[in-house]
Amino acid sequence: MAIDNPVHLNECGLPLNAIEWLETHHRSKIAEREQMIRDLHLRRGSKLLDAGCGPGLWTPLLAQALGPRGQIIGVDVSAEALVTARQRSREQWYEAFVQYKQGSMEHLPVPQGSINTIFSANVCQYLPQPAHTFSMLGRYLAPGGQLIVKDIDFGTMCFYTIDPALQARVFQARVDWERDRLQEAYSFEDSWVGSKLAGYLREAGFEHVQEKTYKVVRQGLLTSDFRSYIQGIGRWFVCEGAPYLSHSDCQRWLECFEDGEHCVLDQEIFQYEETEFLVTGTWTRQTPLRYFDQQIAILEPEHTGCL
């Protein structure tokens, strides 16, 4: 998901939910993301909504899984991200069955009960009340429809070549800051949300909830994209002034990621891992259409193969 006017910046001023960052992050983990989509066994020819689609990075993977008879609707709050998503799809083989609309997670611009599958990647960490948002998303699913959510959990992150004690202090300082940052006029964030997703889906009323984990492991020399991703993450841990971390720990931590003699990314023994969580749930409740949604249904008849 991309958002307008992001408030959390890393030390270089790059918003970690800006389009440039999202593209680098996506490329750095493309192998794992391709496997995630394959493992979902999405029904070919079905209708899928990508909630918080950002610049449309997942669209090619989802299109490949659904096939040319499928339909993809990408929704995001950021107009800038949607412009990029449309440009990305232009003249691609899947362009005819993909459309993008501006809207929020809880108020999707589609009729209730009209979607087979809702997919949402790397959005849940920004939701103050995930269970409530998931229950709102359920209204847009047809009975038996599926919600798929994917997100990070930094509790699984480990840099094996960084002092464990320093690493523990940095991570705990971020946990404490995410707990308190709303009081300082920052937006909500929970970077440890991944392992909580299954519980949130059950609380929201989804059934047959299943969790699958994907370990991301890199060692030795890194690709330029993954190096940029790791450097961005390293700076992000101490952004916003890192109020619960000492100045010396902050400096030592940043030295591990910046070019120079202390940079761990250039070490042949460098090893890193994190785990991403992919959780699915089935919506079995009947959602009656409101009058407004009935009007949308009349104005937007079922997909006939061309948008």
Could you name the CATH class?
Alpha Beta
Apparent shape: globular
Helix count? 10
Mean pLDDT, all residues: 89
Q: From the alpha carbons, calculate the radius of gyration and give it in angstroms.
A: 20 Å
Strand residue percentage: 15-25%
Decide which structural class fits the backbone: alpha/beta
- Terminal-residue CA separation: 24 Å
- The CATH superfamily is known as Vaccinia Virus protein VP39
Characterization of the model:
With 307 residues, this protein is an alpha/beta fold. The protein has one domain (19-299): Vaccinia Virus protein VP39 (Rossmann fold), CATH 3.40.50. The chain contains 10 helices and 7 strands. It has helices spanning 19-28, 30-40, 59-66, 79-89, 130-138, 164-180, 197-203, 224-236, 247-255, 291-299, and strands at residues 47-51, 71-76, 98-102, 115-121, 141-159, 207-219, 271-283. Strands 3-2-1-4-5-7-6 form a 7-stranded mixed β-sheet, with helices on both faces. Helix 6 (164-180) crosses helix 9. The radius of gyration is 20 Å and the shape is globular. The relative contact order is 0.16.
